[in-house]
Specification:
Structural class: alpha+beta
Largest sheet: 6 strands, antiparallel
Number of helices: 4
Oligomer: single chain
CATH class: Alpha Beta
Helix content: 10-25%
Shape: elongated
Distance between the termini: 21 Å
Radius of gyration: 17 Å
CATH architecture: Roll
Length: 165
């Protein structure tokens, strides 16, 4: 089944218009982010100060002398940005309800002014035994910067409602 995705632009957001149900997903299906996300120095430092206060996340000079050769984003900030890009490009009816992370790997540092984009692939789908009104979707997301370097990879599970249940 192929879905035509309509983009709505407004208030700085691009969203998929059509909401998807469990039955709309299948193994091998791919979703690319509808846009890229530019990460700023201010955002990296602010997140670092609040949630991951390591020198290479909060101080440009310390970042230059670190393993990363410059200020870099916390992997958790990168993961949060990826979540935003994923929910913008895969609009699940009622929202994408997380059901667990199997794997998350940060493979390349994210620096100020990097532009991130995602490619997600549905690995498999199955009906939930414990929640019969939902199906479980297992997906892999690969995150790229503007140079097409892979900066993060993840495999996550999430719930999608079954139609008419």
């Amino acid at each position: 089944m192929t879905h035509v995705i309509k983009e709505c632009i407004g208030r700085g957001r691009i969203m998929q218009e059509e909401e998807l149900y469990f039955e709309d997903f299948y193994s091998g299906q791919k979703f690319n982010s509808l846009r890229s996300y530019r990460i700023t120095t201010k955002e990296i430092i602010s997140f670092g100060e609040s949630y991951d206060p390591q020198p290479f996340h909060i101080d440009e000079a310390a970042g230059k002398n670190s393993f990363f050769s410059g200020l870099c984003a916390s992997g958790w900030l990168t993961a949060a940005i990826v979540m935003r890009l994923r929910v913008e490009s895969i609009k699940v009816k009622g929202g994408m309800i997380g059901a667990g992370v199997e794997e998350m790997r940060w493979t390349h540092p994210v620096h100020p002014e990097d532009r991130l984009r995602t490619e997600s692939e549905i690995l498999n789908v199955r009906r939930s035994v414990s929640r019969p009104g939902f199906g479980i979707i297992r997906s892999r997301t690969t995150v790229f910067n503007q140079h097409d370097d892979i900066v993060m990879k993840s495999i996550v599970n999430w719930l999608a409602p079954v139609k008419n249940e």
